[in-house]
Amino acid sequence: MTTRRRRPGKEHVGEEDKPGGRPDERLPERLFATDRYPSRRLNVYSSLNFLVAVKDVLRGTPEMDRIMGSCFGKLFELPVHRCSYPSVMIHTLLARQLVTKKRYEAWPVFGGNPLRFPMVEFGRVTGLPCGEFEEGYVVEMKPKYKEEDYAYWDKLFDSRRDIMIPDVVQMVTEDLTISRSRRLKLCLIIIVDGVLIASTHPARPTLKHVKRVENLKNFLAFQWGRESFYWTATDMIPPKRVMGVCDDPPGEFCTKLRQKTKKMTGLPLALQLVAYECIPQLLARLGGNDDLKIIDCESLPQHTGLNLVDVLEAEHHSELTVQPMMEIGPNKPDGWGELDDEIHDRRMKNMVRLIEDGHNFTKSMWRGGDAAEDLYDHEKHKAANKRKRQRRVSTYFRRPTLVDDDKYDELVARFDALEKVVVWMNKRLGRRKRTGVTPRKEIFCSGGRVKEKKKNSAGAAEVEEQRDKTKSPIVKDVGEDVSVDVDDVGIGNEKLPAESEDVEAEEEEDSEDSVGEDVESEDDEEEEDGEFSGGEDVEAED
Q1: 212 pLDDT tier (thresholds 50, 70, 90)
Q2: Suppose 26 and one of 129, 170, 350, 434 were both cysteines; which one would form an S-S bond, judging by CB atoms 3.0 to 4.6 Å apart?
């Protein structure tokens, strides 16, 4: 007889944390305790962009019609708005699942209601065949190959052993010499190894699939839904217990879900499609409609779909409804969606019986789980967010009582001074708009203009000053004013003479009459400037 070891961080939450009744011992335990879930992201290897690439390459050809009529046709009929990147959505569902003995079933509990994700639901939402494999076929995760197995590989990929699925997409897009049958086979490899059974990043072709595509009839008749589900379920549930290798499968799976990212092989998008189908509140939060299909879109949208806030709002919705299981549907062969090596679980059988009897599940019925994460209280979280929004608004309306009297008087005085400056600037701007006077024109028209001849360098200025001392001034009869080049006149010019202070004082006067007179005399003064500068040039030549 063996005893089950309690994994680190695991606690059984009692009645004080689960109001409304005692946990039901007949039901399976949670992976994480109720409302104590981590929030991380997943690294999904599958990409629906490969479907768009295949559609673009084969648009309007008989090869595309053949694909649409095969088991892969429903993939191109998926609604675009339900196919957003499933990282956050799927992680929240995996963290809410139950710990069972099942090897190929995931049972998330959303808002206290269980939701089944077996092969039946997988085949229902993807349209892929999930019947029995052909006699003797076994899913091998890491098969071993011989050199002679690469004969058709070299023929199909031009002996490129390291080719990736993006390289195959580039090959069928750019190489126009490829035959139609070869192009179809390459596109089928893109669908299988890039979308359904993506096990590496970046995705690469699988040798056994390349060998199978040599015969198109056998390739299209293969049970690709069952094969894809094997790879998908492997990363969605805790692994098998192996003594000395994996002693605590639930604990190791919890550790992986706490990592920054966790890899996901296969087609995990199927779990998101099942959630949208069975939980109307999630689909309502997503919005949009199902009119646009992948076959009709030019490119998939870049939005990430629902975020964590949307999922939590839907989970705590007052009218939350969850359909626990989906029906297989008519006209399915025997063994469709069933697995021979599945394990019987007594607690799971009790739960299915309660579901069939229409039992009303609540959060308080579920026990156990890793309780290392903080407890999430939705009502307190909503109240805290509301206070944060109010606090952000209130920061713009500070009351004077928040500071002392001296500080308040100082701020008021500074505000009054700034208000006077603003009033003065508005008057100046209004006057300039009416008269068209610029600051440079105001200096010329103010009557206190002083002109100074522009010097090319400091040395030339000293030589000119020495010559003026030894000889009689050339412009003595003209006046004491010295010419100033127009380019040197402006606001903030450090070379202005002392008379410019009077000019600045006159600028501060708010008299429209004086400005008008200055504007009228502007043309006359500019003519005098020409005479002065002309006289100076003549003297300089002499």
Answers
A1: very high
A2: 350
